[in-house]
Amino acid sequence: MTEKFEPKITAFVCNWCTYAGADLTGTSRIKYQSNVRVLRVPCTGRIDFMLLMKAFQKGTDGVIVSGCHPNDCHYTSGNYHARRRWMVYKDLMDFMGVDTNRVTFSWVSAAEGARWAQLVNEVTDNIRNLGPYAEYKELAVAGIE
Amino acid sequence: MEALKQKAKELLQNGDVKAVLGYAVGTAGVRRPHFARNPKQVDALVLDEKCTQNLATYLTKHEVKHLGKVAVVALPATQRALLQLVAERQLRDDAICLLAVDGGEVKTLSSGAEVEQHLALKTDAMPAADKAMIEKLMAMTREQRWAYWQQELSRCVKCYACRNSCPMCYCEHCTMDCNRPQWVPVASHALGNLEYHMVRAMHLAGRCVECGECGRACPVGIPVHLLTFFAEESTAKQFGQRAGHTAKLDYALSTFKPDDKETFIR
Amino acid sequence: MSRIGVFTCHCGENIGATVDCAKVSEMCQHIPGVVHSVDYKYMCSDPGQRMMQEAIKEHSLDGVVVAACSPRMHEPTFRRAVSNAGVNPYMCEMANLREHCSWVHEKSEATTQKAADLIRVLVEKVKHNTPLFPIKVPVTKTAMVVGGGVAGIQVALDIANGGHKVILVEKSPSIGGHMSQLSETFPTLDCSQCILTPRMVEAAQHPNITLMTYSEVEKVDGFIGNFKVTVRKKARKLDEKLCTGCGLCIQKCPNKKISDEFNEGLGTRTAIYVPFPQAVPNKPVIDTLNCTFYKTGKCKVCEKVCPTNAIRFEQEDELVTLDIGAIVLATGFKLMKTEAFPEYGYGKHKDIIDGMQFERLASASGPTAGVMKRPSDGKEPETVVFIACSGSRDRSKGVPYCSKVCCMYTAKHAMLYKHKVHSGKAYVFYMDIRASGKDYDEFVRRAIEEDDVKYIRGRVSKIYEEDGKLIVKGADTLMGGEQVEIKADMVVLATAVQSNDRSEELAQTLHVSYDTYGFFAEAHPKLRPVETNTGGIFLAGACQAPRDIPESVAQASAAAAKVLGLFSQDQLTREPIVAVVNRQAGPTFSYCVGCFLCQTACPYQAIEQEHITARNGDVIKTIARINPGLCQGCGTCVATCRTKAIDLQGFSNEQLYAEIMTL
Ligand SMILES: Cc1cc2nc3c(=O)[nH]c(=O)nc-3n(C[C@H](O)[C@H](O)[C@H](O)COP(=O)(O)OP(=O)(O)OC[C@H]3O[C@@H](n4cnc5c(N)ncnc54)[C@H](O)[C@@H]3O)c2cc1C
Ligand code: SF4
Ligand code: SF4
């Protein structure tokens, strides 16, 4: 086991702001680490916490959740509902001992291409430092068997 | 007690209600729910400090709904559950008939507004022991909390007693039973147990009336109620909205304020 | 088993130079369910699309993943191509190999691997895709405009000229709104009545416009293209068809001392009245609160004198229900009253008036016939102080926003005063001068430079009466806060523009959002300024925020264009990316338990109640129903529903679950 640890990062992003922002990162040819896998949903309001739960089951080491800044939601308020959901989710997960440092919530607009690259890099480095999410992976393995 | 029985008989005799739901003595002195459907059956009713179960849970069951109007001997938690059930449109406001016993006095509460008023007089905080336990857990490191819950949850047999005893878990088709997709594995193993309890607590955030029934119902003694209590307290603290205080819907997680304050979104 | 085709695009060098497309294509061959996988230089080119369409036919594909650029770029292109080859367009998904992979990563094994991963995820999604069909909603091509001010009139005329029927609902007895009260208008100083009255008449006579004055919206059901609106026609106590507007009743009405709303309390009117001589329609109403007959049971003079026997004392309100396709709200604003100012004597001094009262004093058709006479004693005021920002931009008055029109009309008022009283002195206290419209700053400069209006930058702290004068005390901040004191004969407060009383109630009736101050909220502050969040309901004029006439009219025409756009087709076609509530056989009927916690989560009020009934009509269960005409497909409700009773087409639970489980 000398292989270097490469974290698995899953990003849930809304179609209108962060996905478009990440597109802009591309058009601007700004480079970032390739660990992240992006899942596109219409709105942060659509992101059921159970989706995050499943991502961890599949051995994700870190999660990014990102959408439109407050006030900019394409659907006007989906992100406000999402924000409340995350405020409780994060609190509760912490209470249950889940490592909430592995979930990064962010607002990235369609104009913030550079910010997306920076976010992905920071999260990737951070998770690389934290190491694999072993505790959870053990559960998952025990679970599947 | 006599006043309660008196009132119960009266309600039955006048035909105001079809049954009175209260407590009776079961095997080994355990207090169990008791449906008195005629004045004779009223005599079995008891009410003492051993009566803890939240009877609101029964009111959403099909069998009970078919009975017609039921009067319920209601502890404060039962009253809160009832308000929340009315808010969530599981019970009609005009179906409310609560018998609240205060000292020797029996009060009949027959609308959401009356229950609200009655409850406003009470300050029925979370039991001190539970509060202390939550504080103790929060004082631990995250790893210790993880270890604690892993250990506790390892005993879970996924009997769903916690769910079935919860007055707010009235869904006919629970996410746990959803198989397209199978969100949570059916078997009781570490992952499935953790996920089940995560989901349960998230689904009760902003809806839990803090009766603690789930914790009492657990046959292996896992303090699962701490999870829903914590979730409820978290919503109450962050949004100032609390379950079981009004018969009007005021669900923190489907409302928002543009200036909700958090510290972690970058 | 699915038959999925994967088409990997090189995008010339754009993807090809970084990602080993041939290898990716090879790897995808082995994904279960994939029966065809190729790579090509330019997938979006004509030959590329043709190749794809041929492959669809040749391999009987039922799903397609195009691995190319961003779906935000070419999803419509490829969905169309797939559709032309006979496969439902929603069976096609795109993996973003360009913006999210080749352009942002270095050429490497890991980058190629990521490209393959991205495709794998979408292949699993496509396996759970279902054919979707555009949603069609019929459209009733009749519009309702609520509020007959200048904005509402403009909307009605534009829609009517576009060839569609319009119902114009106005709560007061005449259309015209605030503009009909104005004397002259900035920045041109043309007479308000002269430019507005022709429009009012045009609206009344237009074959496509039906006026419903003295009426209010009572109830709104339905959704875009299909509203059912109930309007309350308040009883005028008059048969409008018989009345010729001769005005005899008004002349003879013995009850003449009623404070006149149109003249802002500066004049009087009778109990049977038309608000102003140019009113449209020019038919009186009986003010039942002040009419002698309704108070004492005796009088009926008007009935006796009416030559056409049009008076109807027994007339009741009437409720009319109309089928409407689109609604435009143009209910305008109200002005804060001088009573809100304790520091200026709570509206006690007759000579402290608000801007609208000044308009009436200056108006040729006003109570003084346009001669400057102060209300208390009718004397010509020699010194007048105008106070801008009275209430506006003042948190303590609950109005932190700028009322927008006051800087301009204050300059106008000062000018009008100076034009009427040449020897008079006019002072303006102001915080800033906001005059950013076309010819606006020039207008203010004219007031200062040509008409010698004295502008003092500062706030007025106090006004009190002394020896028949109003002493105005304030600070001149440009003179280092020096105290100034002016002995005035009249003070005009440019009070704040506020949302109408009961505007929240109206918003709730129509299910549109409103802001903290009761102004109706636009769907997007920049890009959708005249739409509301509720499909088919639009905004015009000062009901959305303080607005002047040019802006109100521009917005009105914009709203009319939206309505005409909506009415240009018989059916509304919408993307089927909408939420649906699960339905199944009894006894459950649906996973939905009818808790309706989702209802407030929906930004578009798309969630309705549906009653499931037994044969005998008894309601067995009430569940949620998503109105596909209103749903915009954000999916917030889906994540809110505990029982997973709601799902979002195109981004369903099964699709997302499959995607995650592939990671
Ligand atoms: C003192 C003063 C001076 C001004 N001078 C100028 C000027 O010189 N130049 C300029 O460009 N602008 C001026 N303005 C601004 C101008 O008055 C407004 O821009 C304009 O009146 C806005 O038109 P509107 O149709 O949106 O609203 P309004 O004129 O307020 O009309 C709204 C109409 O809707 C009706 N209504 C309200 N609620 C309902 C309901 N529930 N149902 C049915 N009907 C309803 C009302 O009765 C009214 O007829 C001035 C404003 C003030 C206060
Ligand atoms: S766990 Fe959640 S979804 Fe399941 S029954 Fe309880 S509240 Fe309903
Ligand atoms: S998807 Fe969004 S818009 Fe559609 S019903 Fe659900 S919450 Fe409303």
Give short descriptive properties of this protein.
heterotrimer, A: 145 residues, alpha/beta, Rossmann fold, 5 helices, 46% helix, B: 266 residues, 42% helix, binds flavin-adenine dinucleotide, binds iron/sulfur cluster
What is this structure's SSE topology?
The complex is a heterotrimer of chains A (about 140), B (about 270) and C (about 675).
Chain A: E1 9-14, H1 18-27, E2 36-41, H2 49-57, E3 62-67, H3 78-95, E4 103-107, H4 113-130, H5 134-144
Parallel strand pairs in A: 1-2, 1-3, 3-4
Helix pairs in contact in A: 1-4
Chain B: H1 2-13, E1 19-25, E2 31-36, H2 39-42, H3 56-59, H4 62-67, E3 70-73, H5 76-87, E4 98-102, E5 105-109, H6 112-120, H7 128-139, H8 142-153, H9 161-165, H10 190-204, H11 213-217, H12 225-239
Parallel strand pairs in B: 1-3, 3-4
Antiparallel strand pairs in B: 1-2, 4-5
Helix pairs in contact in B: 5-6, 10-12
Chain C: E1 4-9, H1 13-16, H2 21-29, E2 34-40, H3 46-58, E3 63-68, H4 71-84, E4 92-96, H5 98-102, H6 109-127, E5 135-138, E6 142-146, H7 150-161, E7 165-169, E8 184-185, E9 190-191, H8 192-205, E10 209-212, E11 215-223, E12 226-233, H9 248-252, E13 258-259, E14 268-269, E15 272-273, E16 285-286, H10 292-296, H11 301-305, E17 318-324, E18 326-329, E19 333-335, E20 352-354, H12 355-362, E21 383-390, H13 406-420, E22 425-430, H14 440-449, E23 454-457, E24 460-466, E25 469-476, E26 482-488, E27 490-495, E28 497-499, H15 503-510, E29 537-539, H16 549-567, E30 571-574, E31 579-581, E32 607-613, E33 619-626, H17 636-640, E34 646-648, H18 653-660
Parallel strand pairs in C: 1-2, 1-3, 3-4, 6-7, 6-18, 7-10, 18-29, 20-27, 21-22, 21-27, 22-23
Antiparallel strand pairs in C: 5-30, 8-9, 11-12, 12-17, 13-14, 15-16, 19-28, 24-25, 25-26, 31-34, 32-33
Bound molecules: flavin-adenine dinucleotide and iron/sulfur cluster (SF4) (2 copies).
What does this molecule look like?
- The complex is a heterotrimer of chains A (145), B (266) and C (663).
- Chain A is an alpha/beta fold.
- Chain A has helices spanning 18-27, 49-57, 78-95, 113-130, 134-144; strands spanning 9-14, 36-41, 62-67, 103-107.
- Chain A has one domain: Rossmann fold, CATH 3.40.50.
- In chain A, α1 (18-27) crosses α4.
- Chain B has twelve helices and five strands.
- In chain B, α5 (76-87) crosses α6 and α10 packs parallel to α12 (225-239).
- Helix content of chain B is 42%, strand content 10%.
- Chain B folds into two domains: 2-120, no CATH class; 128-254, no CATH class.
- The mean pLDDT of chain B is 94.
- Chain B has helices at residues 2-13, 39-42, 56-59, 62-67, 76-87, 112-120, 128-139, 142-153, 161-165, 190-204, 213-217, 225-239; strands at residues 19-25, 31-36, 70-73, 98-102, 105-109.
- Chain B has a five-stranded mixed beta sheet, with helices on both faces.
- Helices cover 27% and strands 25% of the residues of chain C.
- Chain C has five domains: 4-127, Rossmann fold (3-Layer(aba) Sandwich), CATH 3.40.50; 142-234 and 317-332 and 500-567, FAD/NAD(P)-binding domain, CATH 3.50.50; 248-305, no CATH class; 335-498, FAD/NAD(P)-binding domain, CATH 3.50.50.60; 579-662, 2-Layer Sandwich (Alpha-Beta Plaits).
- Chains in contact: A-B, A-C, B-C.
- Chains A and C meet through α1, β2, α2 and α3 of A and α4, α5, α6, α17 and α18 of C.
- The complex binds flavin-adenine dinucleotide (FAD) and iron/sulfur cluster (2 copies).
- Flavin-adenine dinucleotide binds at residues 146-152, 169-172, 177-179, 182, 185-186, 216-217, 330-333, 335, 355-356, 359, 405, 409, 412, 500, 506, 541-542, 547-550, 552 of chain C.
